[in-house]
């Protein structure tokens, strides 16, 4: 479950009578919302609805991790429950018919627990400039690989559709990719992967940061680039559909930016492989654009595109459903 800030993951455990493989067979549960900033003390009960199941890489065996969203006792989604609204969009017949696929590139930074400074960096100082660290190897270039590999294996074990990992441009920063996943499952899988990452960093005594610009100055920020395609885009003639979808996204640029993560203005400066936050532009193979279309997609005349605007701390339920709504349901 997600706490009151929208980024603080919370969890609790319970014993079941036997193995369960379907969320609908799990009991609802509750927690004290006054302790998570989600309910007043005099009416503190928040109800958990089980929504998705993953194998538990920590306890293993028949144990499971369960993604839950949160409701009032009357059955209304609480304000921080972004999954509920996303599920409505993804169950719309026009969206279901298009089978939206997502691939999310989650960047994050590993920090020393005591000083909240990136691992591998001199305390109070800076490493050499960016260049050798991206996809780098070696003790002076790659910091925290044991954590990253443990996370990769744990996600594979859990059944998360994790498709890869790599070291990022800023030292101490890494990325994992989830997808292609269909509809609401992209949000479920990314949140489960974030939870597993935070549990593994807890064991390692390291802090994971999803801040979009953890270190000011000439250092890359952290994003959650979201790759997207629909059935029409993947079929012949899809490139024209892609161009129309990008045009719609451009018309709603401000609305999307406002929902794409906190502190994104510190990251989207027009430097460090981003477009300025107030500018919407797209291009083929252009990593300085808001939307990037791959060379393969241009050549094949069909495929997918990448929305480079979401920040690393975005809510995947919000971003994925908003992209679907704007491109498939909104009539300008």
TrEMBL record:
This protein's GO CC annotations: cytoplasm
UniProt xrefs under InterPro entries: Gln_synt_N, Gln_synt_N_sf, Gln_synth/guanido_kin_cat_dom, Gln_synth_cat_dom, Gln_synth_gly_rich_site, Gln_synth_N_conserv_site, Glutamine_Synthetase
GO-annotated molecular function: ATP binding; glutamine synthetase activity
Residues in GS catalytic domain copies: 82-332
Cross-referenced Pfam families: Gln-synt_C (PF00120), Gln-synt_N (PF03951)
PROSITE patterns, A to Z: GLNA_1, GLNA_ATP, GS_BETA_GRASP, GS_CATALYTIC
Record family assignment: Belongs to the glutamine synthetase family.
Assembly: Homooctamer.
Name this protein carries in UniProt: Glutamine synthetase
Originating species: Cannabis sativa (Hemp)
């Amino acid at each position: 479950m997600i706490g009151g800030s929208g980024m603080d993951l919370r969890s609790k455990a319970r014993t079941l009578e036997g193995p369960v493989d379907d969320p609908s067979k799990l009991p609802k549960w509750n927690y004290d919302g006054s302790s998570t900033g989600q309910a007043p003390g005099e009416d503190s009960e928040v109800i958990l609805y089980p929504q998705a199941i993953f194998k538990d890489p920590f306890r293993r065996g028949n144990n499971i991790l369960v993604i839950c969203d949160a409701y009032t006792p009357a059955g209304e989604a609480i304000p921080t429950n972004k999954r509920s609204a996303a599920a409505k969009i993804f169950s719309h017949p026009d969206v279901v018919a298009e089978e939206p696929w997502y691939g999310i590139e989650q960047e994050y930074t590993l920090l020393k627990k005591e000083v909240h400074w990136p691992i591998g960096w001199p305390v109070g100082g800076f490493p050499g400039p960016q260049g050798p660290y991206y996809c780098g190897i070696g003790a002076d270039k790659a910091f925290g690989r044991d954590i990253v590999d443990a996370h990769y294996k744990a996600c594979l074990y859990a059944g998360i559709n994790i498709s890869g990992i790599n070291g990022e441009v800023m030292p101490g920063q890494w990325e994992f990719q989830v997808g292609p996943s269909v509809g609401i499952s992209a949000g479920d899988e990314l949140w489960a992967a974030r939870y597993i990452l935070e549990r593994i960093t807890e064991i390692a005594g390291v802090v994971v940061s999803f801040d979009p610009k953890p270190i000011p100055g000439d250092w890359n920020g952290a994003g959650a680039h979201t790759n997207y395609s629909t059935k029409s885009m993947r079929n012949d003639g899809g490139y024209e559909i892609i161009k129309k979808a990008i045009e719609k996204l451009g018309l709603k640029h401000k609305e999307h930016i406002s929902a794409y993560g906190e502190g994104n203005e510190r990251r989207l400066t027009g430097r460090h492989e981003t477009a300025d936050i107030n500018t919407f532009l797209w291009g083929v193979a252009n990593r300085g654009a808001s939307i990037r279309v791959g060379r393969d997609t241009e050549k094949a005349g069909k495929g997918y595109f990448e929305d480079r605007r979401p920040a690393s701390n975005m809510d995947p339920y919000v971003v994925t459903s908003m992209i679907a709504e704007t491109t498939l349901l909104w009539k300008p």
